[in-house]
Design a protein that fits this description.
The chain is mostly beta strands. 14% of the residues lie in helices and 43% in strands. It has one domain.
């Protein structure tokens, strides 16, 4: 994923499926370096990690 798409997802009122290493995450914060973000696992609000935005994947849900 690139920084611009990450910004769009964070700013959106819609819910997007984003994964990091195959695990579903929420993007908590985008950092000023435009390369990293703080995320947490959808099932665990306490466990946060700083990750490379390029390693985040937007999953497309089939309805």
């Amino acid at each position: 994923m690139d920084f611009q798409r990450a910004q769009e997802i964070v700013a959106s009122s819609l819910e997007y499926e984003v994964t990091y290493n195959g695990v579903s995450v929420w993007i908590d914060q985008l950092h000023n370096d435009e390369k990293t973000a703080t995320v947490h696992l959808r099932r665990s609000l306490e466990e946060r990690s700083e990750v490379a935005i390029s390693e985040l994947k937007e999953e497309y849900l089939v309805h």
